[in-house]
């Protein structure tokens, strides 16, 4: 594993990673963005249309959302998923989308490298996940805007690429391109390994530490293999094992 990290991540540590993300679709990209140290704060002049959430947000001005009580903030929010943290982030990123509104995100993002958590994102294809398997000319069912990730609006990206939305919809090809570009623009590329398929995740045996004593904390091991056609001189071994330890978000409030 240590050789693998030297080859692909430029890291020289043989320490297990904190996080291995399996799958490089929009979910994996967004998680990598957070783990890279990008930290959400409420814009000083923002007013959230949900009065209760607005009141709670105003109780801790200038404090990062990640340092607040996520259970408290997400209490009472409703939507199409079960995860309170996902509902909260949806409400902060796209405040009134479920009611057909277009209110801007109330979040602003700061890159705070001291918060970064070492991680790797393994994916079968290029960053963008399922969007690379969908016919490029197909138009999205959702509004193009809704496919955006933090701090890079799809409509602004499309404008810069001299592309346009059709009836507020983007093509699957544009969205796949947007996700790939997002990884580069946000400087996340060094954490991504494309063409890597995870074939097993299992408990591993901790390696003895330098002192000769066994480190008691358990390890997860992810076995991965490189897809045919993705190997390169920089990737000599077609398969290898990486490990990480069970981990909680530093605040202990999100996993
Ligand atoms: C035809 C079609 C149209 C759609 N239209 C819309 C739409 O209009 N609006 C909308 O919101 N959603 C739409 N979706 C759904 C959208 O694609 C998903 O919601 C979104 O891509 C989910 O993102 P994700 O990151 O969770 O997973 P995915 O995008 O599925 O990414 C996960 C990636 O992980 C890879 N992977 C899985 N297992 C492994 C492994 N063991 N090792 C390595 N890699 C692995 C997969 O190959 C995949 O590339 C559509 C889907 C399809 C198929």
From TrEMBL:
Residues 207-255 are annotated as: Disordered. It comes from Myotis myotis. InterPro entries: OSGIN1/2. GO terms for biological process: negative regulation of cell growth. GO terms for molecular function: growth factor activity. This is Oxidative stress induced growth inhibitor 1. PANTHER family: OXIDATIVE STRESS-INDUCED GROWTH INHIBITOR 1, PROTEIN CBG05349. Transmembrane segments: none annotated.
């Amino acid at each position: 594993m240590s050789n693998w990290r030297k080859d692909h991540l430029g890291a020289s540590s043989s320490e297990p990673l904190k996080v291995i993300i399996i799958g490089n679709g929009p979910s994996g990209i967004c998680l990598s963005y957070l783990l890279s140290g990008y930290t959400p704060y409420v814009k000083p002049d923002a007013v959230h249309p949900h009065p209760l959430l607005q009141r709670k947000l105003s109780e801790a001005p200038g404090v990062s959302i990640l340092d607040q009580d996520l259970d408290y903030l997400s209490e009472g929010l409703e939507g199409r998923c079960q995860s309170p943290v996902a509902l909260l982030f949806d409400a902060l990123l796209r405040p009134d989308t479920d009611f057909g509104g277009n209110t801007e995100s109330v979040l602003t993002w700061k890159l705070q490298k001291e918060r970064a958590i070492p991680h790797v994102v393994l994916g079968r294809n290029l960053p963008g996940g399922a969007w690379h398997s969908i016919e490029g000319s197909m138009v999205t069912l959702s509004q193009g805007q809704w496919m955006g990730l933090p701090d890079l609006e799809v409509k602004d990206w499309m404008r810069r690429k001299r592309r346009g939305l059709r009836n507020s919809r983007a093509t699957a090809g544009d969205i796949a391109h947007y996700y790939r570009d997002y990884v580069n623009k946000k400087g996340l590329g060094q954490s991504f390994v494309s063409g890597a398929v995870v074939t097993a995740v299992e408990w591993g045996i901790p390696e003895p530490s330098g002192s000769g004593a066994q480190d008691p904390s358990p390890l997860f091991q992810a076995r991965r293999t490189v897809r045919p056609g993705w190997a390169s001189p920089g990737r000599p071994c077609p398969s290898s094992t990486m490990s990480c330890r069970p981990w909680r978000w530093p605040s202990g409030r999100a996993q």
